[in-house]
Each structure stands twice: as structure tokens, then as C-alpha cells.
UniProtKB/TrEMBL annotation:
Residues 16-111 form the HTH arsR-type domain. It comes from Streptomyces gibsoniae. This is Helix-turn-helix transcriptional regulator. InterPro entries: ArsR-like_HTH, HTH_ArsR_DNA-bd_dom, WH-like_DNA-bd_sf, WH_DNA-bd_sf.
Length: 114
């Protein structure tokens, strides 16, 4: 069995869905979960690529959080990239708004987030 080099991550790069290829029911299902809605709202209030996955205050474990981010990527809402040991995120607001005009604005306004 080959040894892994110290400090080198061999995790797979995240797969991202183009919002143009997302069905409306997939998008609605992704935003219907309270944890995912909280992630979306926190990302909306943060600069792109400044939030690592572990920086969100949500009541789920690491595996569940990974699943929630996978659902958000699959709905075209979130893009992720690895920066060293951290996986950072951005809300794909412009692309998602082009596919589903007004949906994010409605979700973000519900708690007064602009």
C-alpha cells in the first residue's frame, strides 16, 4: 500500500452542476431544507471564496454538512474549490438568478438578508 505524502490531500475535486441544467424541482428541493437555507443565507452575506465548509454554524456533523454542500452543488447554487487543506465556497448567485430569476432574492429577503 502506497504511503500518502505528509500534508497532501487526495480528496476528489467537487463536481458542480451548471444551473442551466438544473430542474426547478431540484432547485426547490435544495432550498427547502433549513440547514441548506442557512448555508445559502450565510454565503450570501460573505465575500466569494472566504468561507470554508467548517466555518458555518449549523447543527449537523461533518458528514451531514458534506451531504448538504453536495446537494447545493447539484442544484447549481454553490461552487467549491480546495485551497490547501480548506474547501472554500461561493454562492453562484448570478448564474442561479439567470436560471431562476427572483428565487434567491425571495429566500434571502425572508430574514432580511440582502
Amino acid at each position: 500500500m502506497a504511503k500518502q505524502a505528509a500534508g497532501v490531500s487526495h480528496r476528489a475535486a467537487p463536481v458542480h452542476m451548471d444551473p442551466e441544467d438544473v430542474a426547478v424541482l431540484t432547485a426547490l428541493s435544495a432550498v427547502a431544507d433549513p440547514v441548506r437555507l442557512k448555508l445559502i443565507r450565510e454565503l450570501a452575506g460573505s465575500a466569494d471564496w472566504t468561507r470554508s465548509c467548517g466555518s458555518f454554524d449549523v447543527p449537523v456533523g461533518k458528514a451531514a454538512l458534506s451531504h448538504h454542500f453536495s446537494v447545493l452543488r447539484g442544484a447549481g447554487l454553490v461552487e467549491q474549490r480546495d485551497e490547501g487543506p480548506r474547501r472554500v465556497n461561493r454562492l453562484r448567485r448570478e448564474e442561479f438568478d439567470a436560471r431562476f430569476p427572483g428565487l434567491l432574492d425571495l429566500l434571502l429577503r425572508a430574514d432580511g438578508v440582502d
